[in-house]
Structure formats: C-alpha cells, structure tokens
Amino acid sequence: MLNRDYLERIKRDSGSYEAGRRETIRLSDDIRTVSKRAIFAMHRDDTATADRLLAEALKGIVSVHAKSQDGLQLTEEGSFRAALEEYVEARLYRDVLDGKELGPVNVADVEVPPNIFLGGLCDMVGELQRRQVRLATDGDIDGVKAMRDLAEELVGALLEMDLTGYLRNKFDQVKNSFRRSEEILYELSVRRT
User: Fold this and answer.
1) Which of 14, 41, 67, 159 could share a disulfide with 46, CB 3.0–4.6 Å?
2) Are residues 122 and 176 in the same domain?
C-alpha cells in the first residue's frame, strides 16, 4: 500500500524548493550585476554609488539567507555562490580603497565560506591591477607601488595554500594579474628615467 500523505509532503516540499530556487537564481543575477556595477563605480572613484550598490547587493544576499532558513538550502545553489563570490570581490576591493585589513566577510551574520572568500579575493587582485593602470595614467607611482605590493602579499599568502580545482584556476589568474602589475610598475619606472 502506498503512503499518499508521505508522497504529498514530498511533492509539496519539492514545489517549495523549486519556487525558492527560481527566486534564488533571479536574486543571484541581481546580486552579481549590482556587485559588478559597484566595482565599476569604485574604478571611477564614485564610492557613494559603490556603497549604495553594495548595500543593495547585501539586501539580496540577506533575502536568500532568510529563505534558506526554511530548510531549503538555497545558499548552496551555484548561481547564489557565484553571486556571493562577486559580492566578496567588490567588498574586498572597497576595503582596499578604504585602507582596511582584508579579512572575513560576513553577510546575514554568517561568515562567507572560505572557498567563496578565496575566490573573491583572487578576483579582487585583477581589480588591483586595473587600479594600477588608472594610477599610472595619473602619474601616481606611490599608488602603483602600493597596489603591486598588496598583490605581491596576496600571491605570497595564496602560494602557502595547496589550492586545487576551481581555486587553482583562480590562483593562476592571480599570478597573471601580478605579473602584469609588475610590468606596469616597470614601464612606469623606465619612462621616468
């Protein structure tokens, strides 16, 4: 004999999860887009817009976390994890511009998982290299050196970890960004002499 009540509960739970998943994917797309726009605003030194956009992204993250507390595990969706990584990249880049120490990122009173933090940190090194180009254009050699020094510190710290898989690919991108940042500083110093 078939337990119809049990099957109905599975059907109801599955429907709730799928509805939550679709909403999470929509919110994640918004979070990722807004975080990218925040980074772009920071590249234009428009910190007021960047802060507003980061707050907007955080609202979306908090919303997904709230839905996950219903037992739906929506924070494990790939689209959300990618959006969260983009937010971490933007948040860390904002911290760099503010001269803050780069450390744990908390959202919805929960620390971002280490692998997402590391992914965002790796991507943020590319933003440092882009900042160097702008600083070099403005003739700010000290700023260029500061960005290169921070990138070098991050490469050194990441080298101490045995990163594999996805994070290893991210680390390879970090090394390429660091190499380009050294080239920027070299070319700037050659032009000055």
Assistant:
1) 41
2) yes
Which residue, 134, 174, 129, 159, is CA-closest to 147?
129
Last residue of a domain, one of 52, 78, 112: 112
Residues 112-144 pLDDT 10s: 889 999 999 999 999 999 999 999 888 898 999
Question: What band does 190 get if pLDDT is binned at 50, 70 and 90?
Answer: confident
- Does one domain contain both 9 and 92? yes
- In Å, how far are 5, 35, 108 from 161, measured between CA atoms? 50, 27, 28
Q: CA 84, 103, 107, 173: dihedral to nearest 10 degrees?
A: 0
Structural domain for 139, as ranges? 114-193
pTM across the whole model = 0.88
Structure tokens at 140: 């700010």
Residue 29 CA neighbour count, 13 Å, CB half: 5
State yes or no: pLDDT of 95 exceeds 70: yes
Q: How high is the pLDDT of residue 99?
A: 94
- 102 φ/ψ angles, rounded to the nearest 5 degrees: -90, 115
Q: What is the CB neighbour count within 10 angstroms for residue 133? A: 15
CATH code for the domain of 141: 1.20.58.2140
pLDDT tens-digit readout, 10-22: 777 666 677 777 8
Contact 89, 123 (CB under 8 A): yes
